[in-house]
Amino acid sequence: MIICANRAPSSSLPTRFKNILLRSCLISIAAMMPAAFALASNAGRHSGPIVQTSEGPVEGFVTHGVAEFLGIPYAAPPVGNLRWRPPVAHASWQSPLKATAFGPACAQIYELGVFAGPANNNEDCLYINIFTPTIGKGERGPAHAKLPVMFWSYGGGWVDGESNDYDGSKLAKQGNTVVVTFNYRLNLFGDLAHPALDNEGHLFGNYGILDNQFALRWVHNNIANFGGDPNNVTILGQSAGSRNTASEVLSPLAKGLFAHAIFESGAIPTETPLSIAEAKGVAFAVAAGCGSGTTPAVAQCLRNLPAATVEALAGSQPTTYGDSANSAYIAGLITDGQILPAPAIQQYQTGNFNHVPILDGDVENEGNFALAGTEYYESPRAPLTETQFNTYVTNAYSGNAGPGGSPPAYPSGTPAQVSAQYPLSAYPSAQQQWGALETDANYSCPTHHVDQILAQQVPLYAYEFRDQTAPFYFPPMPGFVAQAYHTSDIQYYWPLYHGGAAGIPHPLDKQQENLSDDLVAAWTNFARTGNPNGPADSNQPWPRYSASSGPFLAEGPVGLSTESDAFWVAEHHCTFWDKVLVYQSTVQ
């Protein structure tokens, strides 16, 4: 059967995208794609396409030329005795499962400003969503669909976020790819090490990463029936989702499950040594009333805790930047020795990772997002001050450099050296002074450091998103200048992205939409071939990155251009930060 939408490609699309769309009709031929799409007639029982999965059939719907399948359970609910265990397969079903609404989000405690939420105590949350393109009625497609697959892991600092904020229709239709989004466990449900759990003989600690890997295996087993190529999967994510993606590149357990990787604002996973993570876990168990022991009885006590109790101990919404967004018990990603065998930089440097083409970059003013969260929660809201900047620098760079207080410590005098790099006289406001420091120390220079290592081992393409006109989905705040803030680029791939439950969606204007078209073309080209340049780009406008010379692609606001590696280093003070930062202990 042929599945085609009854809508022609928009006349506003660039010619290259019209041509892609006119070639992208999915054909379901039993001998070629067993158990693939079957679309019922108007007189039939079903109103949408039916696809067979390994657990049972699912029924989606078609809108604007994209078939969507939402809220498919990809694993059993991780509740009861399955809490703090690796995910397992969901029970099968016989009748078509309605896949027309997103599944519930995973338990989370706050919204990081307006980023995600709402807060909830739900543990039954392991659901996956698929967006796959169709085209105009009567158009014939390729004999074998086998479209490239884009597997998206959302951000949110591992404490919040949900897949239902991401509309994959543009990447699917305009880029002719199959797009996958999914939920994974967060905060204490997703990242917890405790000897009583860790000694049970299963993979442990990084349960959110295990969810990522289980969803990736589910895709590998099922995506052909949705028109995707299981041998051409690109993993990608933003912020914590980017660090999840990097974890898959680093994890031997994910070998062979993907062909390319895209890091958006986070190439180095935040890592906590196992000993520190287990100490946090024991402290959590004591606070929860389960005692300080390491016996099976303690593990059972932890699994018997009400979800609301676990969430209460996971922390509360911070009100100022510099406060811990997590409670003292959350470890973040853990160097557990199996899922994540060793510190990321060590693995990158030794070549002990899954070698695939990588596309890696940041946005120009990453740090402004966290500062927006600070002002958002202040009452009354007021611009950040120089005093707040100085206090933060003193607190952040006087102590230990590693996660959880682990060594080594910053050398004496580091706060004064940091302040000298970022004098208030060089910036229009203390907010932009602070934002520049946060961008350089936590994103741009760590990214550059990783690029220098990776470019010597795998095909690498580097970028910086620089559209300072990007819509700002926070409410207006006194004196705040958003610029190209962390998460601002998401809107250019995922239509009307608004950050979460409290965010304000803003349509892109014509110039921004043009940039969006260029970025979607580059990302989906990369998903197709491992090269962001399309077949028509004979001059290769996006050069491969070299450790000796760069360059990186500058994205926006009026199009794509290249900048030298030296420009990046100078703009972000990386010569200074390369001497100060302990990259193997980089924190988010």
Structural features:
Rossmann fold; disordered N terminus; 11-stranded mixed β-sheet; single chain; alpha/beta; 4-stranded mixed β-sheet
Short description:
The protein is α/β, with parallel strands linked by helices and 588 residues long. It has helices at 15-22, 169-175, 187-190, 195-198, 207-222, 240-250, 274-287, 296-304, 307-314, 344-350, 368-377, 386-397, 414-421, 430-454, 510-529, 565-571, 574-580; strands at residues 2-5, 26-27, 38-39, 49-52, 57-59, 61-63, 66-73, 97-98, 127-133, 135-136, 147-153, 178-182, 191-192, 205-206, 228-238, 260-264, 271-273, 333-335, 358-363, 460-465, 552-555, 560-563. It is globular, with a radius of gyration of 23 Å.
What does this structure look like?
It is a single chain. The protein has 588 residues and is of the alpha/beta class. The chain folds into two domains: 2-188 and 207-269, Rossmann fold (3-Layer(aba) Sandwich), CATH 3.40.50.1820; 373-576, Alpha/Beta hydrolase fold, catalytic domain (Rossmann fold), CATH 3.40.50.1820. The chain has 17 helices and 22 strands. The N and C termini lie far apart (48 Å). The model is unreliable at 1-46, 136-144 and 584-588 (pLDDT under 50).
